[in-house]
Amino acid sequence: MSDIRSLALACRDAAPLMAALDTAAKMALLHDMASSLEQHGDAILAANARDMQQALDKGLHGAMLDRLRLDATRIAAIAQALREVAGLPDPVGVVTRRETRPNGIAVERVRIPLGVVAMIYEARPNVTADAAALCLKAGNAVILRGGSEALHSNLAIAAALHDALRAHGLPEAAITLLQDLRREAMVELLQLTDIVDLAIPRGGEGLIRFVAEHARVPVIKHYKGVCHLFVDSAADVALALNLLVDGKTSRPGVCNALETLLVHKDVAGAFLPRAAHVLRERGVELRGDPATCRLVPDTKAATEDDYAAEFLDLILAVRVVEDLDQAIAHIRRYSSDHTEVIATRDEAAAQRFVQALRSAVVMVNASSRFSDGGELGLGAEIGISTTRLHAYGPMGAESLTIERFVVRGEGQLRHPQSRIEDPGQGP
Amino acid sequence: MSDIRSLALACRDAAPLMAALDTAAKMALLHDMASSLEQHGDAILAANARDMQQALDKGLHGAMLDRLRLDATRIAAIAQALREVAGLPDPVGVVTRRETRPNGIAVERVRIPLGVVAMIYEARPNVTADAAALCLKAGNAVILRGGSEALHSNLAIAAALHDALRAHGLPEAAITLLQDLRREAMVELLQLTDIVDLAIPRGGEGLIRFVAEHARVPVIKHYKGVCHLFVDSAADVALALNLLVDGKTSRPGVCNALETLLVHKDVAGAFLPRAAHVLRERGVELRGDPATCRLVPDTKAATEDDYAAEFLDLILAVRVVEDLDQAIAHIRRYSSDHTEVIATRDEAAAQRFVQALRSAVVMVNASSRFSDGGELGLGAEIGISTTRLHAYGPMGAESLTIERFVVRGEGQLRHPQSRIEDPGQGP
């Protein structure tokens, strides 16, 4: 048996033990994991220093280095995040529906864990703790396959989590961190259809495509966010400008940042020059269609690729549209199904925008940056699904469970003629 | 462009039109589809006669021929099923949750259609109408890939459905029946990741495996039912006997029929000889472990394969177990995650059985034959999912939708410092 398979089998064997934990046990475990992370702080920082040195040697820089870097504050934040997950409602065992059928059988829909979740991610070591905590909260065992840049940091974090598992008499395999980071090993993991119930890839386009191509297990993709803001003719211009600045500049490197601005032609003259001024003050480069370029001098011409791009940077694609319909058509064509925003005071226009689009999150007069599990009330998120199946948009602990049927009867039969007239009589 | 791709693209283009239909429009359409089926009755019967003749020529017989056969009564039943789907609640647009966040944004979870559903099935022509109706009820467009034995019947049924679509000004492509039934064409369909939102294979083991192996689009499997009845030491023996007879003999060829009987050793002596007598009277062959063979003379020895088998026939695998734990371990090992039943008067044993198993449907003192969308209150079903993602167990119209987020605000920002202090001022 291969190493990957035997590790995954051990994780699968741990899954029923995790599924059987009650709410109080999971809460205590998550608190102890948080404390253990703090106690392992020095070891985690030392491991992270190794990763950082290797990353520097490889020539990584900027945002990539920043994502990899840990310090005491960040470790405290990771521990705090685990305590917050501990305090979230337990989704397991929740009865979502209950009905007594005419024949008297009681039918309940009850949430159970998925089983084994494989999380595949890139450089951020905090995902190791966050994903493990959320999977565990939902009663799952988890296989973590992080990026090679963060391997030492991830191992040190996993060691801290394992200490807490051991202290609770639970197998370390419930949180299995893979050290074999070859692509072949990932492919093998993604084809363990008898073991892995769900794979969640979270990262750049290359990773997502690789997983989608090779997976035989179910996958929920956390793909890019090509998020749009449409400024309608009935928009409050000041409000729209604020949504634009918040959406584009408050954190340009994340998936819920705005990438494309669509402006109704009736407000383009009033809105675009002002918007361009404010954005350029904040270092944003605009790439526009001809109408935009006419209204905003020195705007670079946008290409087809710009409208499809997730820049994750201080760049904004801009287009002036004829009307709401053209805005909807543009978004349908270029959207990654993540998050779209309309700024309008016209309720009918807002309603049409919401109904015509099938993105995971559609907002009226609110910032795209709220497209986040914490902000939308999930407490914490394992990511933002762009797969329109099972979970769509921010995914919390509940999305790591599934509803099943529990039926209670008193001997009801489907076919009354099956009933033995006098079952008391022996043969 | 290949034929499959261009057909699928036309179906995708029809999807937004189907998604935009309101409840009344869908209801009228479904009623008109039912009437159209009845009006096309003679053509459908003539097409079915061709299929039946070809099937006879190929040497098909018994249950396979019966599944293929249509008559006036069956056509009336198909039309009636469409009318029942018309009367079901519309899942699209339902707000499942609503919350106002501390910052004032209103967050709703709203059901939208999945988009394009590809249904892949085998000989039963009624699935053509049933699946189309349920997909449409949930606002989806559908691609139907039936079995070659039923091609003429399926084409005739699709023609009837298309008449109704046309009468409502809707594109026929909303219900696309594939005529290219080569395996290569199915593989191509299953890899249209930019078009097909969900593939549902429903059929025998070979079909399901083929789809799982080749699909790149999301798949919800409708796999076999290796359903168990466990007769606990605290069982009401008469009740258990009735569940056994109903589960095994009322319709042995369906997936919610019982395939394996597990009996607690403390009641085996009282239960098994009587059960064997009653079952044998009804033509059931028993295959047992050594303990069963001792209690029931002339019982064939069960093999490992028998415990894993979905017989779909008057055959029952039987095993005497030491206790509830051994029953649970047996089911965990051999179950196909479909439906399991415990007969017991001991509430604690029932609770343990339910919690320890993760099958889609778990029943206490009720027949496995209730594991069905209609019986469990879904109104109709597109099948019974054995994939523990999105939908698990009987799948109704609601399972052909997905919840997404709709957010309404009044200009809320994630980072207050994004706010332009005096946006009224021009540049």
UniProtKB/TrEMBL annotation, chains A, B:
InterPro entries: Ald_DH/histidinol_DH (IPR016161), Ald_DH_C (IPR016163), Ald_DH_N (IPR016162), Aldehyde_DH_dom (IPR015590), G-glutamylP_reductase_CS (IPR020593), Glu-5-SA_DH (IPR012134), GPR_dom (IPR000965). The keyword Metal-binding does not apply. Its EC number is 1.2.1.41. Pathway: Amino-acid biosynthesis; L-proline biosynthesis; L-glutamate 5-semialdehyde from L-glutamate: step 2/2. Pfam families: Aldedh. Residues 3-282 form the Aldehyde dehydrogenase domain. It catalyses: L-glutamate 5-semialdehyde + phosphate + NADP(+) = L-glutamyl 5-phosphate + NADPH + H(+). GO terms for molecular function: glutamate-5-semialdehyde dehydrogenase activity. It is found in: Cytoplasm. CDD domains: ALDH_F18-19_ProA-GPR. It is an enzyme of class 1 (oxidoreductase). Keywords: Amino-acid biosynthesis, Cytoplasm, NADP, Oxidoreductase, Proline biosynthesis. Catalyzes the NADPH-dependent reduction of L-glutamate 5-phosphate into L-glutamate 5-semialdehyde and phosphate. The product spontaneously undergoes cyclization to form 1-pyrroline-5-carboxylate. Belongs to the gamma-glutamyl phosphate reductase family. This is Gamma-glutamyl phosphate reductase. The lineage of its organism: Bacteria, Pseudomonadati, Pseudomonadota, Gammaproteobacteria, Lysobacterales. The gene is proA.
